């Protein structure tokens, strides 16, 4: 969800949605933004048995995967548009996300589109969404 900032309570609510739909990772690595380092997030993580790991301040290379993702979002989506409003920006991001997930093959998925890959995972898991493995991590995008 695009916006100007993300409050911690909003982050934990999104993570609760992830939990309901897919389960939770054992560990989440983030930068040191206030939405991640405060009491709300620490309490949520403890309650859900999720370890929080923070990159060193000023060391975005320690979270290179998400930094690469952020660069792609900026280059392919955000920098290509002049937004008239926050709702316009959200609409453009939603369209870009749909294209990324349903129409573009991804090299990390052996050139399969993410929606197709997810459907195969669900089929393999007996119709259920795949649960993260113990080594799975969730990295937070900072749009």
Automatic annotation (TrEMBL):
Composition bias of kind Polar residues appears in 133-143
Q: Which GO terms describe its biological process?
A: DNA integration
Query: Transmembrane ranges?
Result: none
Integrase catalytic domain segment(s)? 1-121
What Gene Ontology molecular function terms does this protein carry? nucleic acid binding
UniProt xrefs under SUPFAM superfamilies: Ribonuclease H-like
Q: Where is this region: Disordered?
A: 124-143
Instruction: Please give the Pfam families that the UniProt record associates with this protein.
Output: rve_3
Q: Which PANTHER family match?
A: BLR2054 PROTEIN, LOW CALCIUM RESPONSE LOCUS PROTEIN T
- The molecule here is called Transposase family protein
Query: Which species is this UniProt entry from?
Result: Piscinibacter aquaticus
**Upper taxonomic lineage:** Bacteria, Pseudomonadati, Pseudomonadota, Betaproteobacteria, Burkholderiales
